What we know:
It is built from 10 helices and 18 strands. Helices cover 28% and strands 31% of the residues. The protein is globular, with a radius of gyration of 21 Å. By secondary structure, the protein is an alpha+beta fold. It starts with a helix and ends with a helix. The longest helix is centred in the N-terminal third of the chain and has 16 residues, at 3-18. The strands form 2 sheets. It has a 9-stranded antiparallel β-sheet. Strands 4-5-6-12-11-18-17-16-10 form a 9-stranded antiparallel β-sheet.
Amino acid sequence: MTATTATLLEKYEEAKKQNPKMRIRDIAKQLQSSEAELLATGIGNHVTLLEGDFENFLKEVNSMGRVMALTRNDNCVHERKGVYNNVSFENHVGLVLDSDIDLRLFMMHWKFGFAVKENDRFSFQFFDKSGEAVHKIYMIEQSDMSAYERIKAAYTAPDQSKAIITEAYKPAPAEKPDSEIDVEAFRNEWKNMTDTHQFFGITRKFGISRVQALRLAPEGFVQEVSNDATEKLLEYSAEKQVPIMIFVGSRGCIQIHTGEINKLMRTGPWYNILDPELNLHLRTDAIAQSFIVKKPSEAGIVTALEVFDKEGNLIVQFFGKRKPGIPELESWREAVEVVVSGK
Length: 343
């Protein structure tokens, strides 16, 4: 252990004593460090450094059976139980396609990996180059621990003393003035989308941020709504059993839940879904803007609720349950209408 790591470990241990309920992500910010660097202070104790091809690693996760997948950003945590089936990659972009575990993977951001045993919980945890978590996989009661140990052994780094060196991402470029954007051309491309996935390419083409795109959207396609829209939508969906899709992303992973939701509960600033297969934790006091967004597709209009923080970062998206080529559910459109009308 280097002197720097030893010092960081001392600070981390002291912070945990002072704030025993504080999450490691929040302690890292308090110490002006990163979660990966704090976790690395436990190497040789309860943490094992991993290395190797993380794409191949993910193809082996299904041998562990049912596990819990966790993806989060600063203001939303998405936890879903299931099996990692149908894992595939093309040019370091991957998919896990299953009715339970449904992921979009951006492996160019998967830099560090660890096996962690903490409070009798076993997990694999992955981080980007800045040391921020991109995805975590937790063992649950039904998981195959022999498979966990086999995978851990196969990907254990030979040198467990290697220092973790993080690197900050460049800040996002400043938003272009609206006057520098061909707004009419942008609106035409929006209206002529045939697949909602084309939206990202259109914003890149015109060099505009997501929130700016929503502000410049063609008439009738975007409506800003109250920031309590998420709670209203979830309450209606739970009461009427409307099957929904919930997208939460980190830099390296988007995790999706599809299905009905049931148990809703508020805990301080956090609004929670606490179902057997899905836990969602949303920090509602961080919501700065909420929009109902409509995008064309070959099967008709696709409607979403998109929620942003004050920096313009996407916190969470909600859709009605749907498959490509199939129109969205009328029950979902009714749910959205309730939110928009405020009834």
